[in-house]
Amino acid sequence: MRVPLAPDALDEALAASGRRWPPVEFHTRLGSTNDRARELATLLDAGWRVVLTDHQVGGRGRLGRVWTVPERASLAVSVVVPLPTPSLAAWAPLVAGLALARAVAEVTTEAGTPVTPRLKWPNDVLVAQDDDRKVSGILCELVAGGANGVDGGGAALVVVGAGVNVDQDRAELPVPTATSLALAGAVVGREPLAARYLLALRALVDELGDHGAAAMRTSYERACVTVGLDVEVHLPSGVVAGRAVGVDEHGGLVVSTPTGRRAFAAGDVVHVRRPGGRLT
């Protein structure tokens, strides 16, 4: 039985961290959590406002891709993330993916049904237990300005939206390359998953602000399974083949090609696949 979300439980888990979090804004049904979070980003003190829904009916991903999910079967959450400087905005998608991968590992392990998440650049979380199918999607949108910046300053606000397939069966998934935590053998509550993800995201944003892109680059490369693989980078203009050797100071994927090294920004790439079409 798919039970409704309990937003109070998420509020309590966030408050227990000792950090200040605005109350979670919960909707039984909502078109897009990202759209609502963008509206909240215009408010004063908008940082770390969270939008949560039991049923997102107008979800979208990168490049305008849209999808629908059954009611109460997935986690759909967006948060307004204040970055210490606009120059770090390109790292938001990567940091969000790293946070979500950590949350999936922690929550499924605590539930006694551990899932092995594999992070594909820039932020897809794949599940090793289901043939590296994709369990989540993340969409980051930079918000211009906001209300007097963050805390009256000029730092960047980024709306980070995450969708995680929690309880879908195979027939409820949109594409054959998708999976859910349930299909990987894990039965978890959406509230603890959301809490672990949001707390991990905030900790990583703090780390990014305190230690800069160089330290985050090391942490990300250690977790990203794309690094070290032969890949095909699909661009609107064509396909570039080579070996992924790391990420650059802006979070771009660095690929060694026959003509030299090239870096690709997440916003410019349609797909990164293994030769033959596999996701990684």
TrEMBL record:
<dbReference type="InterPro" id="IPR045864">
    <property type="entry name" value="aa-tRNA-synth_II/BPL/LPL"/>
</dbReference>
<dbReference type="Pfam" id="PF03099">
    <property type="entry name" value="BPL_LplA_LipB"/>
</dbReference>
<dbReference type="InterPro" id="IPR004408">
    <property type="entry name" value="Biotin_CoA_COase_ligase"/>
</dbReference>
<dbReference type="GO" id="GO:0005524">
    <property type="term" value="F:ATP binding"/>
</dbReference>
<keyword id="KW-0436">Ligase</keyword>
<dbReference type="InterPro" id="IPR003142">
    <property type="entry name" value="BPL_C"/>
</dbReference>
<dbReference type="InterPro" id="IPR008988">
    <property type="entry name" value="Transcriptional_repressor_C"/>
</dbReference>
<keyword id="KW-0067">ATP-binding</keyword>
<protein>
    <recommendedName>
        <fullName>biotin--[biotin carboxyl-carrier protein] ligase</fullName>
        <ecNumber>6.3.4.15</ecNumber>
    </recommendedName>
</protein>
<dbReference type="GO" id="GO:0004077">
    <property type="term" value="F:biotin--[biotin carboxyl-carrier protein] ligase activity"/>
</dbReference>
<keyword id="KW-0547">Nucleotide-binding</keyword>
<dbReference type="Pfam" id="PF02237">
    <property type="entry name" value="BPL_C"/>
</dbReference>
<feature type="domain" description="BPL/LPL catalytic">
    <location>
        <begin position="8"/>
        <end position="209"/>
    </location>
</feature>
<dbReference type="GO" id="GO:0005737">
    <property type="term" value="C:cytoplasm"/>
</dbReference>
<keyword id="KW-0092">Biotin</keyword>
<dbReference type="InterPro" id="IPR004143">
    <property type="entry name" value="BPL_LPL_catalytic"/>
</dbReference>
